[in-house]
Amino acid sequence: MNKNRKKKVSKKMIFAIRIIKSKKSGCYTFENKIITDREVKNYFKEKK
Questions:
Q1: Which of 5, 16, 4 is nearest to 44 (CA)?
Q2: From CA 31, how far away is CA 18, in angstroms rounded?
Q3: Which pLDDT score is estimated for 28?
């Protein structure tokens, strides 16, 4: 279960970064904030 969860989290991380690149091209500061695991989790908590 844990391994599958980690895979899903990493896939979400990549997906989130891609969305930010396409919708807000050139916004690299926001993209960099999402790269770390802890900040990715916080980002998805705020989105819910």
A1: 16
A2: 9
A3: 45
